[in-house]
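Quick one, tokens below. Sequence please?
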């Protein structure tokens, strides 16, 4: 537990307390602090920004509440962050996130083509935009491709999460019932 806390504090520094608070708020405190810190550390080690983690955690909690995710929050968080980091579409689809990698990359390439055309003062036709977008995709490194896909997945998670019921927990329901 001390190792996890030390790694957590080292990676987040002065933001550690707020990051833990945001994570616990997103998951309604359904996992203990050591598992929460470990989940945050693991996600960040996979290249996921600390600002994206509470939204991912909230989505996992919503999946649990909906009966879509059957494992505990920490293990489902691990599955989802691994899927995000690696672009594993099967795991993402199981969680309701359907990403067409080729379409994402073409859209990213088209954005790059539009930026390039604007800088050069050129107007592109739709056909020219698609062709230029495809050309830009061919020049992307694997890291750039993965970054574009990760961004699309995080956007899809936000949209999906916003359309779902706010997370609840049995504990929270029991506390409300006792009042």
């Amino acid at each position: 537990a001390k190792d996890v806390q030390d790694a957590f504090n080292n990676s987040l520094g002065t933001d550690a307390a707020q990051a833990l608070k945001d994570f616990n708020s997103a998951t309604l405190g359904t996992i203990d602090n050591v598992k929460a810190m470990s989940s945050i550390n693991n996600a960040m080690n996979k290249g996921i920004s600390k600002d994206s983690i509470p939204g991912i955690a909230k989505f996992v909690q919503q999946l649990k509440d909906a009966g879509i995710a059957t494992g505990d929050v920490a293990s489902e968080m691990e599955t989802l962050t691994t899927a995000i980091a690696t672009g594993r579409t099967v795991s993402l689809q199981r969680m309701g996130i359907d990403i067409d990698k080729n379409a994402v990359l073409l859209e990213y390439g088209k954005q790059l083509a539009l930026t390039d055309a604007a800088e050069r003062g050129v107007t592109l036709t739709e056909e020219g935009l698609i062709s230029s977008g495809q050309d830009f995709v061919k020049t992307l490194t694997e890291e750039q491709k993965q970054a574009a896909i990760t961004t699309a997945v995080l956007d899809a998670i936000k949209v999906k999460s916003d359309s779902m019921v706010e997370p609840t927990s049995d504990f929270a329901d029991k506390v409300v019932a006792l009042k």
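Residues 171-179 have pLDDT under 50 and may be disordered. The longest helix spans residues 142-162.
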